[in-house]
Structures are given as structure tokens and as C-alpha cells.
Amino acid sequence: MVDIRTRYLGLDMRSPIIVSASGLTRSADVIADCAAAGAGAVVIKSIFEEQIEAEIAQAEDAHFTGRQLPDAYEFIRRHAHHQAIQKYLETIREARAAVDIPVIASIHCVSAGAWTHFAKQAQDAGASAIELNVFIPPMDPRRTGAEIERTYFDIAREVRHAVTIPIAMKIGPYFSGLSNFAMRLSKSVDGLVLFNRFFRLDFDIERMTMVPASMISNPSESESALRWISILSGRVHGDLAASTGFHDGRSVVKALLAGASTVQVCSALYESGVGHLTGMISDLQNWMIQHGFASINDFRGRMRQASSGDPMAFERVQFMKIQVGIE
Ligand SMILES: Cc1cc2nc3c(=O)[nH]c(=O)nc-3n(C[C@H](O)[C@H](O)[C@H](O)COP(=O)(O)O)c2cc1C
């Protein structure tokens, strides 16, 4: 039998497939289903920075206004269930008791505020690592790209001060200098998750209103993470996890060839059920057998671009071949 064990963020994992933060990981019983189907780790559904800060302000009997996104704070103040912090910590404890795979806590954040102390509480509750889903939409015309980037570093630094467990940061692809940014950011955390999938809006042309677009990805979306992991692998510090659009065992193979340590999966499990993980794992194992690989390290990173010169020149030549029609 081939060996599909891997290491991610310094954690030993029995398989490279992680169930991403989502409703599939909201409670210990569904997390147990993920483990039973073969997940190497799970990322618990995120708690939002605004939820944590709202509770801190409530406990201190302070008025909180929301520095970055006042509307988001107002929404939480009106609609949030109380004790989100305690409930989240309880989910970590219950998940740790229910499964023997790493359980990663996840925090959705946009600033480095008082909420960062929560990371220590998550660690004390038994989280194996912290994943920070940082989503700072560049909509505010007064904020420069440099200011937005600085916030990612501020968040990483504050959480690093708070905990000793590993930290991963889940980011999007929209940075003007992604290679440089990812390289610098990778020194502040233990791993990068490439990429998160931003909330999208669609138009309802009958009602003429904005509506949420589908939360479910399609397999072609994996091309973005594949491309960037193959560019960054071997160049950045720490581990890379592939995310968005990984729906089957073949795409997992591609991510590992690009240099990913792990692959996060969500939409495919919403579509086909958590049991789909088992098929993804056996497809990975069958591919390894067919190609004579005994372990993941035998082929991981074989298609990274660090070993093949200048990625920009490589891509430009491929693009020219197609556009100019030269074979
Ligand atoms: C219903 C649903 C809930 C999600 N909740 C979270 C969340 O709490 N935190 C987070 O970081 N990502 C969340 N995500 C995003 C997923 O973790 C993942 O990054 C995204 O779906 C792309 O991966 P996929 O193509 O495998 O679906 C959610 C996705 C879905 C579909």
C-alpha cells in the first residue's frame, strides 16, 4: 500500500486532504464524519472578528463602533447569537475529543484588533493550529495597496504574539505583487492557504436587486491555485495548502505535483457528500501505484516552477505560442 501521510504546519497528517472551514466542519459530529471518511485534518467553520469583538465590548460594557467595517459590526450587534466565543471554544474541545486528526481553528478577520487574544483561548481549548482567513476587500478608494498589505502583517504579528501553535493564513489572489507579498508574508506564518474564494454577488434582473452568487466552486477554479503554488513552491517559507476548485483525486495529484503540502476541499463535499473524500483518496493512491510512487514526498513539487527558470518568461512563451499560432 502507498503511503499518503504528509506534514503540514509541523503537524503529522495521515492524508493530504483537509476539509475546509465551512458548514461541513461546524460541529464535532460532522467533523467526526470527515475524519471517518479519511480527512487528514479539518478546519473548523470560522468565527468572525466582529463576533469576538462584539462580545469583548459587551463584557466590558463598552460601546463598540467597529473601526474597519461599521456595518458588519452593526449586523453582528443586532443578529449575533450570544456566547459565540464560548460556543466556538466548546466546538474545539468536542472536536478534539471526537477525532484523532488535527483540528484547526479558523478566524475570519480584517484587522489586528483586541480579538487576537481569542487565538490564545483557541489554543488553550486544544486547537492544533490557527487558520486566519484574511479578507480585506480593496473597495475603499482612500486605502492604498500598501496599507492593505500591512494589515495582513499586523494580524500575523499579533496572533503570533498570542499563541505558540502554528498559524496558517488563507489569502486571496488579488495582490499587485503576489510573489513578493507571499514571500514576505510566509516569513510571518507557518503556511499559506492559496486561495480563499471571495463572496460573489450576482444581479437578479427581474427584481433588479443584488443577490449572493453560488457559494459552490467549479473544478476549473483550481487552475489559479495550481498556477500560483507551482510558482511559489520552493520560493516561500513554510507550507502551501491548495484551496478552491479541488473536486477530485486527480486535482489533488496536481496540487501535490505543484508543491502543495495539503489540499483543502469543500464544494465537492457539499455536492457529493463527505463520503466523496474516500474516493478522492483512493484515486490518489491508484495514481501513485500506477506511477510507481511509494510516498507523497516521491513526487511532491515535481512540477514546481522554481526548478525550471523564470516563470514569467515560461508563461509568456506559452501564451505567445497560442496567440501567434506557433506550434
Ligand atoms: C457554505 C460554505 C461556508 C463556508 N464557510 C467558510 C468559513 O466559515 N470560513 C472560511 O474560511 N471559508 C469558508 N468557506 C469557504 C471554503 O472554506 C473554501 O475556501 C471555498 O469554498 C473554496 O473551496 P472549494 O472550491 O473546495 O469549495 C465556506 C464555503 C461554503 C461553500
Structure in words:
The protein is α/β, with parallel strands linked by helices and 327 residues long. It has one domain: Aldolase class I (TIM Barrel, Alpha-Beta Barrel). The chain is 41% helix and 16% strand. The chain has helices at residues 28-36, 49-59, 70-79, 84-98, 118-125, 145-162, 178-185, 222-232, 249-258, 267-272, 276-290, 311-324, and strands at residues 6-8, 11-13, 17-19, 41-43, 47-48, 103-109, 129-134, 167-171, 191-194, 201-204, 209-212, 239-242, 262-265. The chain has an eight-stranded parallel barrel, surrounded by six helices. Strands 1-2 form a two-stranded antiparallel ribbon. Helix 1 packs parallel to helix 4 (84-98) and helix 4 packs parallel to helix 5. The longest helix is centred in the middle third of the chain and has 18 residues, at 145-162. The termini are far apart. It binds flavin mononucleotide (FMN). Flavin mononucleotide (FMN) binds next to strand 6 and helix 10.
**Cα-based radius of gyration, to the nearest Å:** 20 Å
**Strands of the biggest beta sheet: in what spatial order?**
3-4-6-7-8-9-12-13
**Oligomerization state of this entry?**
single chain
Please write the CATH class name: Alpha Beta
At the fourth level of CATH, the homologous superfamily is Aldolase class I
In what range is the share of β-strand residues? 15-25%
Q: Helices and strands, in N-to-C order?
A: EEEHEEHHHEHEHEHEEEHEHEHHH
- Which fold name corresponds to the CATH topology? TIM Barrel
CATH architecture annotation: Alpha-Beta Barrel
Total helices: the number is 12
The number of strands is: 13
Overall number of structural domains: 1
The hetero molecules present are: flavin mononucleotide
User: Which of globular, elongated, flat, extended, rod-shaped describes the shape?
Assistant: globular
How many strands, what sense, and barrel or not for the largest sheet? 8 strands, parallel, barrel
Overall average pLDDT: 92
Helix content: 40-55%
Q: What structural class should be given to the helix and strand makeup?
A: alpha/beta
